[in-house]
Amino acid sequence: MIETWILAALRNRKFFSLEDLKKAIIEKLEEFNTKPFQKSKGSRLTAFVE
């Protein structure tokens, strides 16, 4: 699920170094993990910490 979500978000961007790609992936991963659940309280990050 996460792979598809990140690839879809970055599919139209061009990266000129591996470091830039890694930064973009980390940013999207953090965005995904902090996005609130739709039907529950919290996010994936808060669920993991708890």
Tally of individual helices: 3
What is the total tally of β strands? 0
Helix content: 55-70%
Q: If you average the pLDDT, what whole number results? A: 93
Anisotropy-based shape: elongated
Percent strand: under 5%
pLDDT below 50 for ≥5 consecutive residues: which ranges?
Answer: none
Strand and helix order: HHH
Radius of gyration, rounded?
13 Å
Give a short account of the largest sheet.
none
Helix-and-strand structural type: mainly alpha
What oligomeric state is this? single chain
N- to C-terminal distance: 22 Å
Quickly count the domains.
Answer: 1
What does it look like?
- With 50 residues, the protein is an all-alpha fold.
- The protein has one domain.
- It has three helices and no strands.
- The chain has helices at residues 2-10, 18-34, 44-49.
- Helix 1 (2-10) packs across helix 2.
- The protein is elongated and about 40 Å long.
- The mean pLDDT is 93.
Which key phrases capture this entry?
50 residues; mainly alpha; 3 helices; elongated
Q: Which secondary structure elements does this structure contain, and how are they paired or packed?
A:
Layout: H1 2-10, H2 18-34, H3 44-49
Helix pairs in contact: 1-2
Concise overview:
The protein is an all-alpha fold and 50 residues long.
